[in-house]
Amino acid sequence: MSTSNLAEEHVKPAVRWGIGHALPRTVLRLAARRGDLQGRITVEASTGADLTGLFDEIRARGPLALTKVGHTTARHAVVKEVLTNDALVTTRPRYGAGILGKLAAWSATEVMHPVQPPSLLVTEPPAHTRYRKLVTRVFTARAVEQLRTRTQAIADELLDGLDPANPVDLIETYCGLLPVTVISEILGVPPQERATVLALGAAAAPSLDLGLSWRVFRTVETTLNSFDAWLTRHLDALRANPGDNLLSRLITAREDGVGLTERELKATAGLVLAAGFETTVNLLGNGIALLTGNPAQLETLRRQPELWNNAVDEVLRFDPPVLLTGRMCVDDTTIAGVPVRRGRLVTTVLAAANRDPSVFDNPLAFDVTRPNARDHVSFGAGRHYCLGAQLARMEGEIGLRTIFDRFPDLQLLSGARRRPTRILRGFERLPARLS
């Protein structure tokens, strides 16, 4: 093996992991040991612990708490202010012109990644404006609603395949399969290739998290390479034979005669796969756990099924799929009266803002009748507001309503386990008895 091949296959990936995951994880762990709020929330999140007390601590430190890492907030109004401020941008950590910066530049990969440019998650105006406008023209509320009938059929088919007499892991048999099958519809995946996309979706989803282990990181990178190669062939096939799916429409979408580049198309498809899979899996799993744990709320939904949409928003408020999101300050600014200097990281704890008592009455109660449940910030705010919000709500409503209609006596069994992730919040295993 040549020196250049050795670097590409072994050394560069190790450097990418070290800078992008091992180093931030080590810094945050050290900060947590010293009692730093930013360090504590990321470390304690990975244990699956109840973070309610920590949310209160952050909120008590003022509108924008200063930490060793940057600033953090648990207040609803401040989260929205941060996410809509043009001086703060979405980015992974920056390492400047020093040795870390040079190593990061040397080890960078050209393979599509959901949290690397040109992904909508980390693209900023003016490129973001053009890019999102084109994507939004395809991912409309009407387009999502057209998927409703098919989503219902997928949910029914999945539940038809379960044996009520035997315990099942709902994450494996239902919560994971429903969203990734819907994603296959969106991407126009032929039936014979859907097993491939199912495997790719499950393996690529952790790409959205921080502090991955070396094993998971390598699995993610290998999967993204495979998805990139598969997508090249798939886009060529759709150009030759467009179908009635959103990716085919996105290929032909134009604004002033200009469409998305090949790399932008791939980035969008990758984001749909990774974000659309992981966050909806978490929404469904968290919702099932909340409703089985609150039988009076489930009974309310049986008496008033028109509340299912609101129940989905209450699940998103009470136990959101994404714990927090960060922004990097690129120009000196002021947030909630607090000066924030260029180069500082600002972390918005979405799950804490969703329990802000100044916005939500009795915020620690799970209440499917809550009149302002939809005021949660689980989809973010501003220019990076989640593009798939309507799709997630629709899948959540159908997925949760259908399983409880089909199996009204569903009970969770011992052995449920939270994912050991820092940003994403959901279940890794959810054993249940259906009947």
From TrEMBL:
<dbReference type="GO" id="GO:0005506">
    <property type="term" value="F:iron ion binding"/>
</dbReference>
<keyword id="KW-0479">Metal-binding</keyword>
<dbReference type="InterPro" id="IPR017972">
    <property type="entry name" value="Cyt_P450_CS"/>
</dbReference>
<dbReference type="Pfam" id="PF00067">
    <property type="entry name" value="p450"/>
</dbReference>
<dbReference type="InterPro" id="IPR001128">
    <property type="entry name" value="Cyt_P450"/>
</dbReference>
<dbReference type="InterPro" id="IPR036396">
    <property type="entry name" value="Cyt_P450_sf"/>
</dbReference>
<protein>
    <submittedName>
        <fullName>Cytochrome P450</fullName>
    </submittedName>
</protein>
<dbReference type="GO" id="GO:0020037">
    <property type="term" value="F:heme binding"/>
</dbReference>
<keyword id="KW-0503">Monooxygenase</keyword>
<keyword id="KW-0349">Heme</keyword>
<dbReference type="GO" id="GO:0008395">
    <property type="term" value="F:steroid hydroxylase activity"/>
</dbReference>
<dbReference type="GO" id="GO:0006707">
    <property type="term" value="P:cholesterol catabolic process"/>
</dbReference>
<dbReference type="GO" id="GO:0036199">
    <property type="term" value="F:cholest-4-en-3-one 26-monooxygenase activity"/>
</dbReference>
<dbReference type="InterPro" id="IPR002397">
    <property type="entry name" value="Cyt_P450_B"/>
</dbReference>
<comment type="similarity">
    <text>Belongs to the cytochrome P450 family.</text>
</comment>
<keyword id="KW-0560">Oxidoreductase</keyword>
<keyword id="KW-0408">Iron</keyword>
